[in-house]
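BUG: 3D viewer hangs when loading the predicted structure for this chain

Environment: internal workstation, default settings.
Expected: structure renders.
Actual: progress bar stalls at 90%.

Input used:
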Amino acid sequence: MSKIIFVLSGPNLNLLGTREPEIYGYATLKDVEDQCRAKAAGLGFEIDFRQSNHEGVLIDWIQEARLKACAVVLNPAGYGHTSVAILDSLKTLAIPIVECHLSNPAAREEFRRSTYVSLAATGIVSGFGAKSYELAIEAAAALVAKSGL
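Structure tokens produced before the viewer hung:
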């Protein structure tokens, strides 16, 4: 099986570092990608790092992961709270899914406190800023190792 972890990020995450840095931090998406690549390499994995503002594109990538990835790390951003379609696509996967958030949704507005994605996720990492992605990759790698994929 592949040693590739898909790391997918949803809408507005292309603006990391400038959009509400008091919530999301000052790291850019490129900084996050570089940290993810280093973390994955240290664990013996590669990553396929992608971001889209478009729900259908994220769904296409999730479907692609069925054939090419050993795990998915997904920061669905706002789509986590609204997209049954992303949930349905995640439910087609037979690989670990780690939901990832920069902030802690449970400590924010009521509507952010639950996500559709969490219904399909193997686990959730949130509240650690850019480090959340690294922790999610660690978790995904451990789940892959445990499953023998």
